[in-house]
Every structure is written in structure tokens, then in C-alpha cells.
Q: What sequence folds into this?
């Protein structure tokens, strides 16, 4: 995708609705950084004002995008109206001129008619006078010829004037028809432009809705990618921790394999912390329903008090510290959060599922090996005959609470050993109750 620069670098006249949304996204990221550094109170009063400014900017940009087209159409409409008014004025002037020409023609025709009537009257009077008086014939003939020539000339002039005016009227009518056709074509073009304007407005609204939907989808994908990245980091830390525990367990197995116990020290091995732990785990495996995990699973405060010792910190406090340290690390990394595409999100989800499966397999394998090691230690210890000869009926089985306190009061254990004990007890309970 080509980079056209940030929306903040563009001119105010070139901004679009999508640029306003990009500016809103940039401002939102800056607010997130401010909130992460100084808390929500720093931007509590500023955020509504910024949101209002962005809304006003969006409305103004949409108006600016629509106004140029409407202004062009309005100017075109005004121009067409002006042309129509000019044509109407010209037609009115033309009609007035035609009326004046007709009036002049009528006046001239009336004058000519009056002259004709006058000449006819004179002709009659002359004929009467000729009939009454005896005058030479030549003079009468000359007079008649003169009168007839005048009448012919007058009639020719009238005919020429009438033909000329008729041609002018036809030309004016033709021009008027052409102007009317042009006016109708312009009106059709105006309606077509108005339809195009409505279509463009509809398309702009559709594009704005699509842009808003795309921005919302982008924000959701970014939030999902951030959550997936946090889960992936937690899973990676969990895998690293389990690998370290597995390495420590393998080292302990190697050390225990190298140190072979002698028969003369069988009684001493019973008194060691490992043998004591093995006996406690054996008794815990025999009594599942009265175990510590079944009695105190939901009491987290009691577990926190039980896990407290002088030399080793409690397990729950360590977990709380880890949980308190993780947001600090995430806050430091939030400033350079990457933006993922859809394919990268799919790869992250696939890797997360693979890591989850790997963590599950490592946990199951670790629990299995630890339970197997504890069983080997329980069955491999050579107990003292005097201890084996004691009747089991006189011994009363202790509850899980007492056995847990015997673990912590008899010798100071590490929190890792207590966790191993709880995992082994869960594994044995799962085996007995599949």
C-alpha cells in the first residue's frame, strides 16, 4: 500500500472523512500512552473536548466534500436561469419589434389604400369631366397612363414590403423554436445533474459507513492482536519455566542415580528428608478423600499461611509478585506495540495453540515422571525390621491437614517440593478415579 503521508501533513482543503478517522486513531494512541504513564485522571477532562472537536471536524469535512459539487450545480442552474431570462427578454423585444413592424406596415398599407381610393376618386372625377367636356384624347390617355404607372409602382412597393416582413417573421419564428429546444435540453441536463448529485451523495454516505465499519474492525483486530500477544508471552514464559523445571528434575535424577544407597544406611535413609517425603506421599496416596488438596482447595488464605516459612518466600506471594511485575513489563512494551495483518494474526493464533499443546504435554510429562520417581523412592527404601513389624492396626491415618503440617514442621521444605507433593497427590487421585 502506497504511503501518501500522515493526515496531519495534508492541507485543510484536502482532508477527507477517512483522514479524520486516521487523526482520531493517532489521538487515541496518544491518549493511551498518557493514560499508561499518568493514569486516567490526567485525560479525564480533556478527552470529551477532543472527541467533540473531532466530531465537528468530521461534519465540516463532509460539508466541504459535498459543497463544491452543489456549488457547481448551483452556478450552472443560475447560468441557465440567466440565459432563459435573456432569451425571454429577447423574445419580448422581438415581439415588440414585430408589433411595431406590423403597425408600420399597417399604417403604410392604410396610407397606400387611402391613396388608391383617392386616386380612384380622382380617376372617376376625371372620367366624368372627360365625359362632360370635350377635351383632346391624347391628354386623357397620358393622364391615365401616369395614374396606372403610379398605382403599379405603389403596388410593387407594398408587395415587396409584405414579402420582406413575412420572411423576417419566419426567421424570428425559427430562431424562437431553436431557443425553446435549447432551453428544454438544458432543463433535461439540469435534471440529469441533480440525479447524479443525489447518487453521489448516496455513494458518499455508503463509503462513510464502510469506512466506519473498517475502522471498527481494525480497532477490534488490534485489540485481539494485543490480547493474543499477551497470551503468547505468558505461554512462552510458562514453557520456559516448565523446561527449567524439567532440566532441574533431570539433574536431580542423574544425581540420585549416581548416589547408590548402601544396605548399612537403610535406617538413616528413612530419616532423611527424601524418605520422609516418600512416606508422607505414600500415606497421602492411600487416603485420597481426606487429602489436603480435597480439604483446602478453595481456601487460598490458609494455603498462603501454610506456605509461609523463614527461609523460602510463600508460593502465592511469588505468584502475586509475578502478576505485579507482568503489567510493568507490558506497560513498557505498550509504547512500541506493532500492528498486525490478518495473516500475522492467524500465525500468532496458530503458534499460541501449539504452545498451549506443548505446555499441556510438558505438564503431563512432568507430573508423570515426578509421580513415577516418588513411587520408585517409596518402594525402593529398605525399612528397618523393627519398624516393619509394628502392627498397622494401631496406627491411625492422619488427615491431609496434619500431614501438611507434618511436612512443614518436621523439616523446612522448599516451595518446589510442596508443589511437587500436590501434583503427585492430584495424579494419584486421577488414577484412582479415572
A:
Amino acid at each position: 500500500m502506497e504511503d501518501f503521508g500522515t493526515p496531519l501533513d495534508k492541507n485543510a482543503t484536502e482532508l477527507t472523512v477517512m483522514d479524520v478517522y486516521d487523526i482520531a486513531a493517532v489521538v487515541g494512541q496518544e491518549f493511551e500512552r498518557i493514560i499508561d504513564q499518568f493514569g486516567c485522571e490526567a485525560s479525564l477532562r480533556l478527552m470529551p473536548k477532543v472527541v467533540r472537536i473531532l466530531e465537528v471536524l468530521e461534519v465540516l469535512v463532509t460539508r466541504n466534500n459535498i459543497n463544491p459539487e452543489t456549488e457547481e450545480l448551483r452556478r450552472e442552474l443560475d447560468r441557465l436561469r440567466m440565459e432563459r431570462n435573456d432569451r425571454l427578454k429577447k423574445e419580448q423585444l422581438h415581439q415588440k419589434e414585430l408589433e411595431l413592424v406590423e403597425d408600420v406596415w399597417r399604417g403604410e398599407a392604410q396610407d397606400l389604400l387611402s391613396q388608391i381610393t383617392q386616386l380612384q376618386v380622382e380617376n372617376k372625377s376625371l372620367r366624368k369631366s372627360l365625359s362632360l367636356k370635350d377635351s383632346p384624347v391624347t391628354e386623357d390617355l397620358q393622364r391615365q397612363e401616369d395614374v396606372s404607372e403610379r398605382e403599379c409602382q405603389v403596388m410593387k412597393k407594398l408587395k415587396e414590403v409584405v414579402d420582406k416582413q413575412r420572411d423576417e417573421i419566419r426567421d424570428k419564428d425559427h430562431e424562437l423554436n431553436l431557443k425553446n429546444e435549447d432551453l428544454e435540453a438544458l432543463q433535461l441536463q439540469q435534471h440529469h445533474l441533480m440525479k447524479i448529485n443525489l447518487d453521489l451523495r448516496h455513494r458518499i454516505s455508503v463509503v462513510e459507513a464502510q469506512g466506519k465499519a473498517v475502522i471498527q474492525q481494525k480497532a477490534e483486530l488490534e485489540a485481539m492482536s494485543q490480547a493474543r500477544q499477551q497470551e503468547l508471552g505468558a505461554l512462552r514464559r510458562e514453557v520456559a519455566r516448565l523446561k527449567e523445571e524439567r532440566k532441574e528434575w533431570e539433574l536431580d535424577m542423574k544425581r540420585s542415580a549416581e548416589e547408590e544407597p548402601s544396605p548399612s544406611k537403610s535406617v538413616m535413609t528413612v530419616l532423611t528428608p527424601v524418605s520422609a517425603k516418600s512416606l508422607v506421599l505414600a500415606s497421602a496416596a492411600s487416603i485420597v478423600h481426606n487429602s489436603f488438596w480435597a480439604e483446602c482447595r478453595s481456601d487460598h488464605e490458609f494455603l498462603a499461611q501454610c506456605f509461609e516459612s523463614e527461609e523460602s518466600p510463600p508460593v502465592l506471594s511469588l505468584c502475586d509478585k509475578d502478576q505485579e511485575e507482568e503489567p510493568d513489563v507490558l506497560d513498557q512494551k505498550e509504547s512500541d506495540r506493532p500492528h498486525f495483518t490478518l495473516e500475522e494474526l492467524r500465525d500468532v493464533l496458530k503458534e499460541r495453540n501449539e504452545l498451549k499443546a506443548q505446555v499441556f504435554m510438558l505438564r503431563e510429562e512432568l507430573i508423570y515422571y515426578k509421580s513415577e520417581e516418588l513411587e520408585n523412592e517409596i518402594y525402593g527404601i529398605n525399612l528397618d525390621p523393627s519398624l516393619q513389624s509394628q502392627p498397622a492396626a494401631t496406627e491411625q491415618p492422619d488427615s491431609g491437614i496434619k500431614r501438611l503440617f507434618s511436612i512443614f514442621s518436621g523439616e523446612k521444605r522448599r516451595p518446589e517440593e510442596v508443589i511437587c507433593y500436590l501434583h503427585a497427590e492430584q495424579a494419584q487421585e486421577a488414577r484412582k478415579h479415572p
Observations:
- DSSP finds twelve helices and no strands in the chain.
- Residues 7-222 form one domain.
